[in-house]
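Chapter review: from sequence to fold.
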Amino acid sequence: MKTRSLFFLFYLLVYGAQAQQDVELDALLFQKIPTRDGINLSADIYKPHQMEKPLPAIMVLTPYGANEKVDRAMYFARRGYVFVTVDCRGRRHSEGTFTPFEDDGKDGYDAVEWIAKQPWCNGKVGMMGGSYRGMVQWMTLKNFPPHLKSIVPTASVGPGIDFPKRNGMFYKYAARWLALVNGKSQNDALFGAVDYWQQKELNAFKNHLPYQDFAQYSGSNVRVFKKWVAHPDFDAYWKQFYPTSQNYQKINIPILTITGHYDADQPGALHYYKQHMQHGNQAARQNHYLIIGPWSHGGTRKPAKSLGKLKFGDNAVIDINKLHLDWFDWTLKGKANAKPTFLKDRVAYYEMGDNQWRYQPILKSFSDKNLTLYLDSKNGEANNIGHPAWLTTDKPSNTTNKPDHFVYDPLDQSVTKDWATQISLAKKNYVIYQSKPLTEDIVVTGHLKAELYLSLNTKDTDLLIVAYEVTPDGETNFLRNDILRARYRTSLEKSTLVKPGKVLLYTLDKAWYFSKKIKKGSAIRLMIGALDWTSYQHNYNSGKDVSKETKRDAQTCTVKVYHSAQYPSRLVLPLDTNPKK
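The token string follows.
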């Protein structure tokens, strides 16, 4: 019997796959989807040629061209779905003008409802896609189309949270992306000209070009760029693109969120998830699943077992198409036994180091147990990477500890690239602290948090922290970083300038969520400095609108870092004390 069972399984795998490949498909290109304001969206539709009955449909709404993933469309069409890829308004063959974020929610609603009424659809529509295509799923869901039955938002952009700015700081990639989607066609060659964009960034930095002018003469969409720059706070303009607390309460469909430890849009992806966990109804929260893999932004769609010098196990590579297929078979076709076996609990996250998938019922921002390391130094000297100051588990008891300090001169262009070159080039631009070697293995899972007591002699500046693991053989492994504009120390929604000389608490707790085992004998290192990267807005510390600042506004900022009984600056590492396999 066992031999017959194995033979039957082999038969299904080989001949079943061949049968799927033999399914004849129809491709219906440039189909018009009418919207409520008279604009027609263009859609490419892939469906089985022979259909005994209407099928559920899977929709992708994209600014990158409906023909971008034909292989994916055919994969699902051969497995019992109609796959519909819709061009965003103003892109490729869709009518209208493309203004990122602003029309996608209502257009998504209209597209879902049009699909549901077609003779080849059984009235059930799911959505999938990553990055911008992940974000528009939430925007569509916010409008509650009746026939939208499930979404799988992957690496979802968070407008105003992780794009086109992070923690209130705009970055120059925004202009590059707007060049990619400027006009109807896809400007891939210009977008991919890395040397061109690096030169633009460096020249703007060296010539002190105000950030608001960066998009000019670059092929970018200046109209949209200027609109974004006019909203430096996380204000009503950005908030309009998100579901409200009432919207989250009303959600009643199953959701699968996917992101990665190194996904540039992880903040957006987790914002939607956390807001739903906070405001959603109990039944819907039970049907919201989350996967956080050891992946980059692109890796959330194409998982790999390595990322740079990081190496993971074979289990880091999951079959994303099969995961989606099982999910939709479960949520759209109602196959009770089709629920993805990978989803052992509602949250799956990858623990690097042990290279194992771990599970929990809900994502915890901070663990019940933390490793708290306090900053300390001798005579205020913490600027030497060869002899760093200390991170210690002992809370400072001395009330007269001399503060450390670093200096950020926005006209000093010797430090321009990133945190790695910043460390190697100029000691005055950072302070650095390191713990004793760990006496046991620890697993850090969650968001790092730095609570720093600082004083500035200017009204504003941009701060950077970077945490590392230092192995017993001296190898330095990046853990996480975080950035903060001083004026947003209390809220990203409203800026509050600093009173020079006043000691204030600065909390940096928006580092990417990650999970990693740090082994006995390794040490923890923390660098604190000024964000002085060519890829970001250049803060000249004047307290004015940073996008308008130039060389004339430059003020040198001295940042004092306090670590006394009165001002116990510290780094908090969330520990995973009982990881569940």
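Two observations follow directly from the output. The first helix runs from residue 2 to 21. Residues 1-5, 11-15, 422-426 have pLDDT under 50 and may be disordered.
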